[in-house]
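Morning!

This is the sequence you dropped in the shared folder:
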Amino acid sequence: MRQPIYADYTTAENGWTVTVTCDGQQAGDRVEGGLVAARDRADTLVAAESAPEAVEPEVAPTPSAKNIDGRTG
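The structure's back. Tokens below.
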């Protein structure tokens, strides 16, 4: 079951303080600008917190290229 994610926005001088909490872990940052900028930063923090640790990308093998007449190369 997925855990809820909480984002807290607090006004600060010339901006916002954003705190994201999920599954006992907390990340935060201060953002200058409006609420939209704070929301964007919260989305970034959520993505960073919810990303799997050290995932190696899988590369699928590509089929060999064939010419129009069916020959490879």
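Headline: Residues 5-50 form one domain.

More detail when I'm at my desk.
O.
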